Structures are given as structure tokens and as C-alpha cells.
Amino acid sequence: MIVSNRIFPDKGLIVSCQALAYEPLHGGDTITKMAIAAIESGAIGIRTNGVFDIHSIKQAVKVPVIGLIKQDIPGSEIFITPTIREVMAIVSAGADVVALDVTNREGRLEAVKPLIEYAKRAGVAVMADVSTYEEGIAAEKLGVDFIGTTLSGYTSYSTQAEGPDFELVQQLCEMVMVPVIAEGRIWTPEDAVRAIQCGAANVVVGSAITRPQLITARYVAALSKSSSVGQ
Ligand SMILES: CC(=O)N[C@H](C=O)[C@@H](O)[C@H](O)[C@H](O)COP(=O)(O)O
């Protein structure tokens, strides 16, 4: 059986549960509890950042976990699992899938090869976080198991949009054989349905479910906009 089909045999929702050190929910078992809540409500997978949360969530839930490590490297724009060190740590923490940057920046399409090979040799699948169609095509050639639209809008040359990049999801689904995971700025159930209609195998939703500070800010902005209307 193809690795990706074994990991996520059905289409569905993957919830990204992440809180970096500067975010209010960072620390302790908060993120693990978020993951448990998501699974209790029907999510089929979790995407999470960092060794602690990957390991903790793996102990707590039975669904596949996509692991990444966000790491700032001075002078580099690549921050999602930038080096082999992070790949090794994610594999050791027990993730089922390693997510990493497969963008066309800083020679990454060449530099990422040993990272992909390491994960695959360890029996762990790879999700390529891309920002454009061309990067998705390149990622498939590199032998990844999933392609995510995660970084659309986060590279200088990709589509900059407020909402999800449905066009990229659709283009990739038409051209690649590996499952495409729609990810990035999916805020409503309708967005998620549309991503699946575009051909996505799965949908990752993060902030709209697990970043209460951003959810709150949207309500506050909407209310302040509506109260200023007509004044
Ligand atoms: C660009 C970047 O750093 N994305 C990260 C990747 O793991 C996460 O911070 C996002 O929450 C995740 O991609 C889900 O997206 P959204 O939160 O928009 O649903």
C-alpha cells in the first residue's frame, strides 16, 4: 500500500495544534489537550510543532501526527524543519510524518534531499510545505509523500491573499499523483469543503481552531468595524 494511503486512508480534517514560545497557549499540556479535543470531535490527524508536543500528543492520541520544528536560522528565511537536526528530532519524537520546507529559496530544493532521505530511511513519511505550483512539482520529483500548500503567501514570490490559495490546491491536484493537503488560512467549514472540492486529500486547519488570540481578534475587529459604521 502507498505510504500516504496507509497514513490517511480517508479524506478529512487535520487540526494543527501549535503555540510558539511567545503565544499564550505555549507550555505544559495545553496543546496536547487541544489535540485530544480535536480528535474527540472527529479530526483524523494532528499537525504539531516541537519535540515536546509531538511526543506528548503521540502518547495521548491514536491518529497520525505530522511533526515539524520551527527553527529560526540567522540569515535564512527557511523556518519549518530547516536542517537534518530537526528531522532527526522529529523522527525520534515519534511523528508519523515529517513536515518540512520545500520552497525554491536559498538552494533548498537541492539542500532538502538528505532531509527527505533521512526521514524515509527511518520509515517516516514526508510532507512538503510548498508555496507555489512549481515547488509542488519539484517536491513530487523529490519523492515526498504529501504536498501541502502551507507556505503560499509566506514566500515573497507566491500568491499573497487573505484567504486560502484554492487555485494552488486545484492546480496541484490536477498535476501531481501524491495527495495534496490544503493548508493555510482556512477559517471556515465552507473553506474546508471547498478545498476538498478542489481535490485536496485532506485539510489542515490551525489558527481558526487552536489560536484563541487570533479568533478573538477577528471578532473584536468585526465589532469595532461595525460600531464605527454609521457614526
Ligand atoms: C506559515 C506557517 O508558519 N505555518 C505554520 C505551519 O505549520 C502554522 O503556524 C500554521 O498555523 C499552519 O500552517 C496552519 O495554518 P492556519 O493557522 O492558517 O490554519
UniProtKB/TrEMBL annotation:
Entry keywords, A to Z: Carbohydrate metabolism, Isomerase
SUPFAM superfamilies for the chain: Ribulose-phoshate binding barrel
The protein's Enzyme Commission number: 5.1.3.9
Kinase among keywords: no
Pfam families, alphabetized: NanE (PF04131)
Broad class of enzyme this protein falls into: isomerase
Pathway annotation from the record: Amino-sugar metabolism; N-acetylneuraminate degradation; D-fructose 6-phosphate from N-acetylneuraminate: step 3/5
Keyword Isomerase: yes
Alphabetical list of InterPro entries matching this protein: Aldolase_TIM, NanE, RibuloseP-bd_barrel
Catalytic reactions on record: an N-acyl-D-glucosamine 6-phosphate = an N-acyl-D-mannosamine 6-phosphate
Known role: Converts N-acetylmannosamine-6-phosphate (ManNAc-6-P) to N-acetylglucosamine-6-phosphate (GlcNAc-6-P).
Listed HAMAP family: ManNAc6P_epimer (MF_01235)
NCBIfam families associated with the record: PRK01130.1 (NF002231)
Record-stated family: Belongs to the NanE family.
Record protein name field: Putative N-acetylmannosamine-6-phosphate 2-epimerase
